[in-house]
Each structure stands twice: as structure tokens, then as C-alpha cells.
Amino acid sequence: MFKRIFFTILLVPVTIWYSLKMLGVNKDEATPEEYDRWGLKWGAAAVALSGVTIDADMGEIKPGGHYVFIGNHQSNLDIPVLFKVLKDNRIRFVAKKSLFEIPIYGKALAHAGHICVDRDNRRAAMESLNQAVEVAKEGISPVIFPEGTRNTHLEDLMEFKIGAMILALKCGLPVVPFVMTNTGRIMGKGDFIIDNRPVVRFKALPVIDPSRYTLKERERFKDDLREMMSAAYRELLAKDA
User: Which residues of the chain have pLDDT under 70?
Assistant: First the structure.
């Protein structure tokens, strides 16, 4: 119980601390290691504070590999877990605009190269996807959640938004679908005290060559991807049944 409350109390000051450190980085002069350093340290610190255990099946992911990662989303805990699991792949998140409006933290997100998406403005959202493509050209691996928000119905995945497919196809990078379970049980939407007893399970699915689909076939890509991820998600859920 102590660690469950400890996480809630300390996460905010820890996040502010690492945000300030990130804002102190000169991104035009920093090496990739220096530029990535504080996000990775924040992720590792948040996971350590939470006390969660992570069981990660990395599949075909290569350390240093350049990908587009597409996965399900249940919890704010997903972010530090993914920083921890994908620490060797230079990830940046495609995230909602409201996160970038949080004092200090939001500025650090933008400074670190995460991509802001305004879901209420279609034109701005498309510009954000184009920005993500440009970021990917610099060796960054974008991470996007096609459900668009945290899922509170943990028995299956939500319907997918088309933006993740457009991003993947425009980037032209190998696509790594992944599924995670139990982050929503540990720290669901609106929860302030965590239950760190369930094991966080991460599974990378087989890498997809985006050339299998044209941009006009994005709906087929979306349907195929959701079917594949839903099946893998249910299999992962069965491990805790």
C-alpha cells in the first residue's frame, strides 16, 4: 500500500524535475543520446516508483531499429512503460493537444520532439501527422495509439482511428503493432492510487511492411491491423485469466 500511495505523491514533482532538465537541453547541439536522455530517465523513474513488473515479448524488434509503433492505450502508465521497454528505439509519442498545455510538462514534451495532435481540428490534425513524418526522417520512431484515447473497457480494443494508418503509410517505415495488458487495471483512467499487483504484459506482433498497402487502402490496413491486434490482445489477457 505504501508504494501505491508513494507513486501518486511523487510522480508530479519527479515529472516536473525531469521536464526542467529536458528544457535545459539545446536540441540543436545535443547528441541523440543527450537529446533522449531525460525522457528515458523519467520513464525509468516512473516505472521504478510504481513498483510494477513488466513482462515484455519484444518479438522482431531490433535495438536501434527504426519503426512506427502502433499499440493499444489504457492508462497514463503506458507512457513510462513504453519508454522503458522501447528505450533503444528513439521513440516519440503522437499525443493529444491538452497534454502540451500542461505548464512545464507540456513545454518539455514539445521541446523533446513529441508530436501534438489537435483532435478537434481536422486540418491541424493532418498537419500534425505530416510533422510526425518529418520527425521520423530524423531517425525517430513515432508511437501512436489508434484508439485515440484511453480504453476503459478492458475486455477488447476500441475502434481504430484512421490517422495512425495514414502516418504509418506516409512514413514508409516498418510497422510494429504491439499490445499491452493490465496497465488499465493498475492505473485506469481517473485513478490516483495504483494497484501494482498485476503484471504489465507487452507483446510485439510481427513487423508489417507498409508497402503491402497503398494510401488508398488505409481502411483495409486499419481493419487488418485491428483484427490482428485484437486477437493478440485476447491471447495476452488469457495469461491472467
Answer: 1-6
Angle formed at CA 205 by CA 125 and CA 164, multiple of 5 degrees = 10
**Structural domain tally of the chain?**
1
How far is it, in rounded angstroms, from Cα 80 to Cα 47? Answer: 6
**Per-residue cell: 181:** 495488458
The pair phi, psi for residue 126, each rounded to 5°, is -70, -35
Residues 6+ apart with CB under 8 A from 167: 68, 94, 129, 132, 133, 142, 144
Q: Residue 99 and residue 232: Cα distance in Å, rounded? A: 29
In angstroms, rounded to a whole number, what is the distance separating the alpha carbons of residues 208 and 227?
A: 14
Residue 220 sits in which domain range?
2-238
Given a contact cutoff of 8 angstroms between Cβ atoms, the answer to whether 81 and 183 are in contact is: yes
pLDDT, tens digit, 9 for 90 and up, residues 85-100: 999 999 999 998 889 9
175-181, strands of its sheet edge to edge: 54-57, 200-204, 175-181, 68-71, 141-144, 91-96, 115-117
Q: What is the DSSP string of 92-152?
A: EEEEEHHHHTSTTHHHHHHHHT-EEE-TT-HHHHHHHHHHHHHHHTTT-EEEE-TT-S--S
Taking the whole predicted model, whether its pTM rises above 0.70 is answered as: yes
Q: Which pLDDT tens digit goes with each residue over 215-226? A: 999 999 999 999
Q: In this predicted structure, what is the pLDDT of residue 60? A: 96
CATH number at residue 202: 3.40.1130.10
Mode of pairing for the β-strands spanning 115-117 and 141-144: unpaired
